[in-house]
């Protein structure tokens, strides 16, 4: 366990990870506080339409970020949206990551015909524009967040598959894998005990970076109407609706954008920092 | 030395197919191991000596059951294990590789690596760890080394761990593929002594693969010289060195300087010929041999016995 | 002018633990043109770093922390000196996209400003020098065997017309038979052309046949230095003796190799006093506390309390 503490210390010493983590923690803290303490509900419609930021309300505190076209408090909605969007992002990477990981492992390890078929499949998937697929799914199964998650997961899955496959290909030729085989280890054990630990760091780094992409993707789909539907508090949706009245009231469109930007930035920083952690560390320790 | 033949191979072959680029048709073969007849007695150390391309490492991998031979037979303790390797015999044949730096998974602690052969055989983790401590003691390490990661150990220590992992399944036959070539001179001497000691303690039989003829001379009882997939000379250490028969053996011996500078170093090395592939007929050494004759280009010589415990594969010699 | 004069040379590397001394206060000499000095040692002794320092090829995280290197009287730190290096890995040192001929000719075209015709003429001569046929001019590195590639490197080295050659384990990656040919070729060329050479190796037997003088390095220091015959006939330092008796020999049967206990110390953790003392079979109290200095006895140098 000592080694893990060492690793965490090293991770935290990387500036990017510190900054990213700080922003993330700050955002999470703010969102949690707002959700717990806000007197407004996220779908609470009122006659107080397009009130500017810091406008007083009938409750004990003002609409800090104003209200939208249906009189709902923007700050409250953004905070719920934070939880929702990040959760959706996590759902996407969990789904695409899990499937991509398995495909990459199987494809890389078995090689031959299986590898050929799976990789061609990945090629097909990766060439489908995500929006086309989302539209197709939406037209058959309906436009909602769940379907949007599925669409994005399908389209981003090949990234993991390819990445994992690459690591598996190089690792499976290592001497210690041969030694493990010589010791009598079966294929499954070899993959889980020897190859997987080499795959995980790169996989996790990629997943972290993909998380921000996933959030953006979901938000974009919602923006064009294929994802979240009213009254769901979702950044893309909020920006889409707010866009129409942007001349009269900029805040219902801009603040969700800022929140999304900060969230995506924090995950990008963390992912970037993780990538640095993986690379030079190996050089130093040898 | 016992007369029991522990390991026997009959015309063992390992060919690799070479395919054309477009239609993937087989256009030829790389004959890495091309008909090796070997007999290793229990308690013996056979030194397999060869340069790159000789097939010695491939032979080692085949004997370790990591590669399936293309043809020929492999008998262990009289049992034919060419196609099927019974579970009861796994663990009796173990291999130690050359590179201690990559033979151990850098992300696993020593204890996780070393117990593998036993876990596979069905031992519980606790039993396996107990046995691994015994094994570590045999190689001059101790319990503390279980918890560390490979990068914390020196090259010599890592190789000891690799040897301990091989010993843990109570092998009878150990294949050592250049076990010291990546180690320092002083470490090499230690590891060689260790190997000699445990051979006696654990009643082992060794196949020692090396490119270093001087090393083979030190550690082996029997020397087998390999060239292009064939054994070209094999015999007791005394016979091979006092009377090297095959032109290649003589060439090899001359390539090593004595540390004594007053003994002139006059290597007799013919020109190098790159890759050995798609061989037609005839002796493999014919392109480089200074004593070649017409028959050498046509016919592969047989491995014939020219004396007690001395065989050579060369047209220069006839059965006496 | 002596081809090589190194005095009190120290080289340090910058690591996460600060500056670590890898070469410590070294004195070595090459007295005549065409003389070969071998530096023999195990890993971690600093021999490769010494070679790099002399060749002026230290990486950015290394520095010369003391002493000087004079090549034919010129201070190597401030003057441009032509030192050619022959590395171990020929494949990495050759450009895979250019033919052998182009790579050798390039030296003549750029360094010596010759015309293409002249350059290729010289190139063919160099190929002949190293025993390779003319046809190799049009071959690519990957089409050659390891030994042939190493010979190309040697050809390029001669083409540079260097003042000094540093050969760092130039044949370790080659088969033994090829190694013999390449090394003797290198020695022949160097002797014929009178180029001084520093030959770095871990193999004492090779050193005693290739070099005129041999210096044994241990833990960043020279512990013994002598001519090739004396090193074998009358080795003085316990480490030299241990090295000689711990290696298998081709010409005789040995019952037991001499074992030096422990492992060579790494830079940054050199022992106190004599650096070999923890492993020395005849160390006495003074050895553990006081570092011996390099003394000269006849034409040899020895760093050991037994000889003071």
TrEMBL record, chain A:
Cross-referenced Pfam families: BPD_transp_1
Keywords: Cell membrane, Membrane, Transmembrane, Transmembrane helix, Transport
PROSITE patterns the record matches: ABC_TM1
CDD domains assigned to the protein according to its UniProt record, in alphabetical order: TM_PBP2
Gene3D superfamilies: MetI-like
Domain named ABC transmembrane type-1: residues: 86-271
One GO-annotated biological process of the protein: transmembrane transport
GO CC annotations, alphabetized: plasma membrane
Principal localisation: membrane
Membrane topology: Multi-pass membrane protein
UniProt subcellular location: Cell membrane
InterPro entries per record: BP-dependent_transpt_permease (IPR050366), MetI-like (IPR000515), MetI-like_sf (IPR035906)
Transmembrane segments: 21-40, 80-106, 118-139, 145-164, 249-271
SUPFAM superfamilies: MetI-like
Keyword Hydrolase: no
Sequence similarity: Belongs to the binding-protein-dependent transport system permease family.
Protein name: ABC transporter permease
Organism, scientific name: Ignisphaera aggregans
Lineage: Archaea, Thermoproteota, Thermoprotei, Desulfurococcales, Desulfurococcaceae
UniProtKB/TrEMBL annotation, chain B:
The protein's name: ABC transporter ATP-binding protein
Organism phylogeny: Archaea, Thermoproteota, Thermoprotei, Desulfurococcales, Desulfurococcaceae
Keyword Transport appears in the UniProt entry: yes
InterPro entries assigned to the protein according to its UniProt record, in alphabetical order: AAA+_ATPase, ABC_transp_ATP-bind, ABC_transporter-like_ATP-bd, ABC_transporter-like_CS, Oligopep_ABC_C, P-loop_NTPase
Source species of the chain: Ignisphaera aggregans
GO BP terms, alphabetized: peptide transport; transmembrane transport
Record-linked PROSITE patterns: ABC_TRANSPORTER_1, ABC_TRANSPORTER_2
Family, per entry: Belongs to the ABC transporter superfamily.
ABC transporter domain mapped to chain residues: 18-253
Pfam families named among the record's database cross-references: ABC_tran, oligo_HPY
GO molecular function: ATP binding; ATP hydrolysis activity
TrEMBL record, chain C:
Top-rank EC class of the record's enzyme: translocase
Endpoints of the signal sequence: none
One of the record's GO molecular function terms: ATP hydrolysis activity
Topological category with respect to the lipid bilayer: Peripheral membrane protein
SMART domains, alphabetized: AAA
Top-level taxon of the source organism: Archaea
Primary localisation category: membrane
Subcellular location: Cell membrane
Catalysed reaction equations from the record: Ni(2+)(out) + ATP + H2O = Ni(2+)(in) + ADP + phosphate + H(+)
Keyword field: ATP-binding, Cell membrane, Ion transport, Membrane, Nucleotide-binding, Translocase, Transport
Keyword Translocase included in the entry's annotation: yes
Keyword check for Membrane: yes
PROSITE patterns found in the cross-reference section: ABC_TRANSPORTER_1 (PS00211), ABC_TRANSPORTER_2 (PS50893)
SUPFAM superfamilies given in the database record: P-loop containing nucleoside triphosphate hydrolases
Domain ABC transporter: 6-244
Example GO biological process: peptide transport
CDD domains, A to Z: ABC_NikE_OppD_transporters
Enzyme Commission number(s): 7.2.2.11
Any single GO CC term annotated in Swiss-Prot or TrEMBL for this entry: plasma membrane
Subunit and partners: The complex is composed of two ATP-binding proteins (NikD and NikE), two transmembrane proteins (NikB and NikC) and a solute-binding protein (NikA).
Full protein name: Nickel import system ATP-binding protein NikD
